[in-house]
Amino acid sequence: MITGQTKVFGIIGYPVAHSLSPAMHNAAFSAIGYPGVYVPFPVSKDLLAQAVVGLKALGVGGVSVTVPHKVAVMDFLDTIDPLATRIGAVNTIVVRDGRLEGTNTDWLGAVRALEEATDLKGKKAVVLGAGGAARAVVFGLLEAGSRVVVLNRTVAKAEALAEELGTEAGSLEDINRLSADILIQTTTVGMDEDRSPVPATVLSRFQVVMDIVYSPLKTRLLREAEAAGCRIVDGLAMLVYQGAAQFELWTGQRAPIEIMRQAALRALR
Ligand code: ATR
């Protein structure tokens, strides 16, 4: 029930109508009896500054930040933690004592999702893609003690990312001569189309395959990886774990992971 004591949270993005985060966070609030509500804030680029400053004025407790604002929002915050600065993107704002604190939980979401399938320390991982999502994933893997090779269609982008974070790079075609413990797909290929960025024949050279695309939940890559005998991790797991980390920052309480996953799954269907 919403009362005068209800704390408001939300998601700033454009568009946000299809976000699974409201379902996920509201289910979590009600599961632990926290007096919170989480709402969509569709904010266009030209109104981002006003929206973010307005969070303080309205007493909002915190927000998730999504496409296209994760980088631009950094200009309007009071503090940004060193991890988010290194990743170069903020996906979480905590409003504490009237100050806007930016952080990033995407990297932790990737790490925790992968840890459901494997230890990461000392493992070798191949990351497909060099966009914003790849940055958080590569950072997370390095934090967790894995070695990483970044492969991208545009090799220069993979090289720039790898150099900045201190790792190796190559082209997408290099997948044909590489093997590793873990393969993580961060490109937009497979999103609402039944395509995989790599040939199915290479997949048996990996033990664990994760796709950060979650619509559809089982992408072509994940189906082919399963058929090749790999353990698979879907993109919903990363979404849930990055959300769980946000929930814990905002409420100071342990996130009910399974309830969040079930709520996100229901919202996806
Ligand atoms: P995000 O922030 O979600 O990572 P992005 O920054 O736009 O999105 O990055 C999209 C990624 O998907 C990039 O690595 C892009 O490769 P390029 O750098 O070569 O553009 C990759 N990508 C998109 N369409 C692709 C395709 N058809 N084949 C291979 N890679 C593709």
From TrEMBL:
Q: Which GO terms describe its biological process?
A: amino acid biosynthetic process; aromatic amino acid family biosynthetic process; chorismate biosynthetic process; shikimate metabolic process
Q: Which residues bind shikimate?
A: 19-21, 66, 91, 106, 214, 242
- What does the subunit comment say? Homodimer.
Identify the species of origin. Answer: Thermosulfuriphilus ammonigenes
SDH C-terminal domain: from which residue to which, for each copy?
235-265
What metabolic or biological pathway is this protein involved in? Metabolic intermediate biosynthesis; chorismate biosynthesis; chorismate from D-erythrose 4-phosphate and phosphoenolpyruvate: step 4/7
- Name by which UniProt lists this protein: Shikimate dehydrogenase (NADP(+))
Q: Does the keyword NADP apply?
A: yes
